[in-house]
Known about the structure:
The chain is α+β, with helices and mostly antiparallel strands.
Amino acid sequence: MQGFVETLLRHEGALVEPIEPEGLEVLAPPPVQRALGVAELSRVGFGSTLPPAAERVGLEGDWLERFARLLGPQGRYARRVLSAPGRAPNDPERLLGHELVLDNATFRLLGVTPAWTRYLLLDFRASAVSDDKRDFIVRLGVNLATGALLLDATLATLALSLDAADLVAPFSGDDEADRGVPEAPALPALWDRSRVLDLIARALPPRFDAKLDHFIAGMHRRLGRDQGRLHGYHNDLHREAMRRALALPEGDPRRQREEQRAAAIGREYRAKLDDLARQYATRVTVEWVQTLELVMPVHRFAVQIRRRKADRVILLDWNPLARRLETPTCAYTASTERPGMVCDDALHLVVPAAFCPCPACGRAFCRACHPICCPKCAAANALPTRRWTDRFWSAPDATGGHASR
Ligand SMILES: [Zn+2]
Ligand SMILES: [Zn+2]
């Protein structure tokens, strides 16, 4: 925290002097004073013991919000070039056979060539709130040349390489030609905004679901326990009222009273269940945080997919830092599941669930080709329902303001 604050303040033009114990003395220019709400000369402390006359800075309180004010829109979009060792992958046939497993089609490796690609690494912050609250970050990485989504392990490796590269030589952006970064078309173009948003809309929910699983399971446990308690209590009352009613002769007004009491207990039980459902309903809000455009050399596999009489060439990149071939992405779900089916018409690679039979007429069809309804009977496409609402996507400019490019 001290390192971050020191770096940020210096960057914003403040004079900063470390003081003991674990503190900073700050001479702040007016914009910094306004954003942070501090005087021209101030002292801040970070440890358990504060320097004399210092204010404590930590994760508690509103200091993170104040620093966010100071940062403003800076750092929302960055571009880095990583020059990786150009060593080619060993045994590409074996690598391909490992990554590409198709149930209803064959494929053939046409060739492997050195190439450049551009990744977008998008960070999102989500908060899930019900009776409990959880915050987490999800990073989505997409290869703009092939459309492949990166695995978490690859994202972690790239993040480590970026940290190391930043330490060695912060990239200024002026020396791209020196690093051999090619122009288009050898370097894939940035996608337009709608294409990025469409991919995010499909790719983010399954990844958040995976992060939320633990949270949701815990909530279901607590909900089940509360429902059981509610049921036990009302069931006993109801049974007791009915026992008393049935002990009385029919038409006896006391019997009617007991029956009405039993009915009222039933109503109260249902109302309490509704209260519980409201209490445990989970609201997830997702916010785009930042986008990193990462340009780097890769080795590009050209693969011919063959299904019946049709064929199509797809591209898959082998990343030299992660030292693995990127897995193709399902053309419909964009989930983390590896696509194992190839459709007849467009030769889309899809997961089995996106190629399942229509629930109305039984015909299997590709959801990437027909996302709205079944091509045979026009029954609405019921796959796969998610518990995410569209409001989720009314969202910020995930292309980092570079949509016009
Ligand atoms: Zn149908
Ligand atoms: Zn298709």
